[in-house]
Amino acid sequence: MVGSVNRQILLKSRPEGAPSLGNFELTERPTPEPGEGEVLMRIVYLSLDPYMRGRMSAAKSYATPAAVGQPMVGGTVGEIVKSRNPKYSVGDIVLGYGGWQEYALSNGAGLRKLDPKAAPVSTALGVLGMPGMTAYVGLLEIGQPKPGETVVVAAASGAVGSVVGQIAKIKGCRAVGIAGGIEKCRFVAGELGFDACVDHRGPDFAKQLEAACPKGIDVYFENVGGAVQQTVWPLLNDFARIPVCGLIAQYNATTPMPGPDMFSVLPNACSCVGSSSGISPRNKPIFCAMSANGCAQVASNIVRISSTGWRMRPHHSLACCRVRTSARCW
């Protein structure tokens, strides 16, 4: 039976700092009727994800901000209760983007039918949905884990982090989780099968993380940022990889936090790779071969060099200092 009232939670205003109840409004409106080519979905499951904090903001990001005065956005699993679209029948279960409301209209674009016999339909919002794909692509495409390496996962008990660690184990890696609280750490190391999980709220967090990673860290799956990130980075091995998936410790910050500005990296999918001649020996033969040709180019004035004399001063030496660890972050 289709209800006559559609309860919706609207984004009333954009939060400054942590969101509050005042930023939202619960309204009741008549349940809409589908037009030609449309379907009406009854929302069965709604996924609440950290990315939603970013959607509440008007700042530039990889996705369009949620509209003020409209239902807050969110992934949903819904049941088709009315249909005027020949591709969908009443009773179909679909994955969509219905948002924070009981009923939602759709023209069918972006909907995907789900088979309740194949897997619980709620998994389409978790391990078999966006969080699962985020973990899969972030770890395998960017992290590129190799057997025997150590993979550290921030927010390891969350929808993304829990999958990252399990994939790391499948790939033959040592999986070390970071979570907030003893219960979460027990869940990560016990039920999820991570090799270890460290409580970032513990007073000896840095010491415990170092002990859990005796060979350093080869892949750090970033979900948190802030103090957790600053504790992890000194343990990174040469040529470590850092998929930047989230920065939940910083989403409500009103002023920049100390350390690297990962907010510029995340929405723009930037690449940042440490580089110096001393850590790229495999390229030396290539450069030496090229330099022979380069001598001819310099001699023929194709490549120009400075003829101005320089006297080295102390501040020039400081300017030449470089961090030796090479890490890639996205």
Structure in words:
The strands form three sheets. This protein has a seven-stranded mixed sheet, with helices on both faces. It has nine helices and 14 strands. The chain has two domains: 5-125, Quinone Oxidoreductase, Chain A, domain 1, CATH 3.90.180; 130-273, Rossmann fold (3-Layer(aba) Sandwich), CATH 3.40.50. It is 25% helix and 22% strand. Helix 4 links the parallel strand 9 (174-179) and strand 10 (196-199). The protein is an alpha/beta fold and 330 residues long. Mean pLDDT is 86; it is low at 307-329.
CATH superfamily of the largest domain: NAD(P)-binding Rossmann-like Domain
Per DSSP, the total helix count is 9
CATH topology of the largest domain: Rossmann fold
Arithmetic mean pLDDT: 86
List the helices and strands and how they pair.
Blueprint lengths: L4 E7 L12 E7 L8 E8 L4 H5 L20 E8 L9 E4 L6 E4 L5 E2 L16 H14 L6 E5 L6 H10 L3 E6 L2 H9 L5 E4 L5 H8 L4 E5 L4 H7 L3 E7 L19 H7 L3 E2 L10 H16 L14 H6 L7 E3 L1
Parallel strand pairs: 8-9, 8-11, 9-10, 11-12, 12-14
Antiparallel strand pairs: 1-2, 3-4, 3-6, 4-5, 5-7, 13-14
Helix pairs in contact: 2-3
